[in-house]
Amino acid sequence: MLYLLRMLLMSVHFIVAGMIGILVGLCRPFNPDNSRLCGRLYSLPAMRILGFKVKPEIKGLLEHQRSCVIVANHQSNYDLFVFGGAVPARTVTIGKKSLKWIPFFGQLFWLSGNVLIDRGNAQRAKKAMLATTDTLQHKDTSIWVFVEGTRNKGRGLLPFKKGAFQMAINAGVPILPVCVSTYSKHMQLNNWHATDVLMRSLEPISTAGLTQEDLPALIEQCRNQMLACIEELDQQLMVRA
């Protein structure tokens, strides 16, 4: 019963937040700070509705002063709400083109200046990635990427896609990893007990002087750091339990 109530409230919230967000987007279309505002618009009420308690350790992320590529693990559709409150200023997201067909959210995603990539068209995808690299270099804007490319559903980190790291090397900007604990296995949406979620941003990984030949080592370095961080966060939750 509680699960159904939460899903009903989330449906209403999703529509209302989308409508308000579209109004914000129409007032300042494609402003790169729209994502931060709308992320909080979606996240803050949703955390109360879902019964999530997120403890963020992300001072380094929020205080980072220059463009970077932010990479995060991707567990479920609820990541929109879990990470929404952590989006820093002037940050846009890369998403698949099909997102634009989601009522309200898709239009908001586009108006917020986020990057929509057609993965089925290599030429268009490459063009979008080149434009994103230019954004990193010249527009004081960071890019948020769910680096696995799809949801891992709490089964551990999937292999990382290369695109985020290629962009960072080409633009000469650092990689900034952000991790959340494995919450998707422990959600209790039909229970009043809260779902605890830990979030942590890591130290930026410099790409200065790197070339595409350094790509495998850069990906391995980032993935190993994120694996160790997620494991530590999960162990902290086990101790609390």
UniProtKB/TrEMBL annotation:
Keyword Acyltransferase on entry: yes
GO molecular function, one term: 1-acylglycerol-3-phosphate O-acyltransferase activity
GO cellular component, one term: plasma membrane
A Pfam family per the record: Acyltransferase
Domain Phospholipid/glycerol acyltransferase: 68-183
EC number: 2.3.1.51
Pathway: Phospholipid metabolism; CDP-diacylglycerol biosynthesis; CDP-diacylglycerol from sn-glycerol 3-phosphate: step 2/3; Lipid metabolism
Catalyzed reaction equations: a 1-acyl-sn-glycero-3-phosphate + an acyl-CoA = a 1,2-diacyl-sn-glycero-3-phosphate + CoA
A GO biological process held by the record: CDP-diacylglycerol biosynthetic process
Name assigned to this protein: 1-acyl-sn-glycerol-3-phosphate acyltransferase
